Amino acid sequence: MALDQGNDFIVKDISLAPFGRKEIELAETEMPGLMAIRAEYGPGQPLKGARIAGSLHMTIQTAVLIETLKALGADIRWVSCNIFSTQDHAAAAIAAAGIPVFAYKGESLEEYWDYTAKLFDWHGGGVPNMILDDGGDATMLVHYGLKAEQGDTGFLDKPGSDEEVIFFALIKRLLGEKPKGWFAEVAKAIRGVSEETTTGVHRLYKLAEEGKLLFPAINVNDSVTKSKFDNLYGCRESLVDALRRGTDVMMAGKVAFVAGFGDVGKGSAASLRQAGCRVVVSEVDPICALQAAMEGYEVATIEDALPRADIYVTATGNKDIITVEHMRQMKDRAIVCNIGHFDNEIQVSGLKNFKWTNIKPQVDEIEFPAGNRIILLSEGRLVNLGNAMGHPSFVMSSSFSNQTLAQIELWQNRDNGKYDKKVYTLPKFLDEKVAALHLEKLGVKLTKMTKDQADYIGVPEKGPFKPDHYRY
């Protein structure tokens, strides 16, 4: 495929930039949080000197985030965190604005990891000093690269997946190409990372528990105005959008199976039910299972659903949720997709030896020896970004406002010892601030407590209104 490559960008078609710019301007109207942050913080340039390596879906909404970070003083390089999630007109618009970006929809895994490595070759020399991550791949490249550079290379010969084969090959290549101690230089330079997703956060907590986290991290995912909005309300709108764009299937009356009833699963189940599906949910957690039952969903195992489900959606963050054996038992042309994070929720690698027919981009039919077929969307990667346009701008404004505030928090406190090599969350008052920034757009009017009322329940008159342990 011919790609447009400039001095410091790789995109599919730079001529799409004017279209991308028009959609960015439309999105800005629907992203009041980010625009308010630009207005409030822009004059002070709180990110001046920050060199942010961003690995997050290169969408129109992300373009608004990138330009917000730039407006606050940051220097930026960007890649997508998913091979199918880039919106090519968004990438073109960012490249045309002079911001280095390496992303296009439909990257190979080799290209994906090559582009991730380009985050750390800073334009003008040097390396980044901040990471903004989604899923943790940029963070993992630094950690695994340093591990190998320090002599612990045994893991490089023991990949556990096809993607790790490519990832580890990249590390070997970088060790050969870069000056000795390059990974150590990068690790030392990074002053912090803000992480967008549940999957990436799990990786950070694991590193921190093992005492191996190389720099401070802010868990953006567990900000209430991220997980309870993006994960829930975003999925509620974008899942069915993706299913319809990918398959044109009539949703009403179909039986849909959702694996997992966390925030993403809750939004996904609601999306399907609102479209008229009869929804079956599976869960390992008795609390989430009880929630699903009391919301009126049938709660059962995937084995129970196999004879009757028409649509399967994984939303767990775990692996091997839908196995090859499960798929062989599904109804003919059952639709299978994932809205968790990685493609290993579905055993896609185990389908290689069956007959594949590509219907259209990100829609494949796999035929089994018995003659039954499944329709696999986005090769098991994020269906809402692969087959549709992701979450709406408004809900992403909430998530990305948290990302921006996290970057400011880490950068402004990089030298004062406030943050150790641990995983933190944003303080409650910032969570409430992000919510407040989005109320006017919806015509919401807040009730104000009197001082007497605030004193009576023991909270400040202007917040925070809830303790940190409050669950919403």
Automatic annotation (TrEMBL):
Class of enzymatic activity (EC top level)? hydrolase
Catalyses: S-adenosyl-L-homocysteine + H2O = L-homocysteine + adenosine
Tell me the residue numbers annotated for binding NAD(+): 197-199, 231, 260-267, 283, 318, 339-341, 384, 391
Q: Does the keyword Cytoplasm apply?
A: yes
Q: How is the cofactor bound?
A: Binds 1 NAD(+) per subunit.
UniProt keywords, alphabetically = Cytoplasm, Hydrolase, NAD, One-carbon metabolism
A GO molecular function assigned to this protein is: adenosylhomocysteinase activity
Predominant location of this chain? cytoplasm
* InterPro entries attached to this UniProt entry: Adenosylhomocyst_ase-like_sf (IPR042172), Adenosylhomocysteinase-like (IPR000043), Ado_hCys_hydrolase_NAD-bd (IPR015878), NAD(P)-bd_dom_sf (IPR036291), S-Ado-L-homoCys_hydrolase_CS (IPR020082)
Binding-site list for substrate: T59, D134, E196, K226, D230
SUPFAM superfamilies the record matches: Formate/glycerate dehydrogenase catalytic domain-like, NAD(P)-binding Rossmann-fold domains
Q: Which cofactor does it need?
A: NAD(+)
Do the record's keywords include Transmembrane helix? no
GO CC entries: cytosol
Q: What metabolic or biological pathway is this protein involved in?
A: Amino-acid biosynthesis; L-homocysteine biosynthesis; L-homocysteine from S-adenosyl-L-homocysteine: step 1/1
What's any GO biological process attached to this entry? L-homocysteine biosynthetic process
Where is each S-adenosyl-L-homocysteine hydrolase NAD binding domain found? 231-390
Localization per Swiss-Prot or TrEMBL: Cytoplasm
Q: What's the family?
A: Belongs to the adenosylhomocysteinase family.
The entry's function note states: May play a key role in the regulation of the intracellular concentration of adenosylhomocysteine.
- Protein name as catalogued: Adenosylhomocysteinase
Which species expresses this protein natively? Phreatobacter cathodiphilus
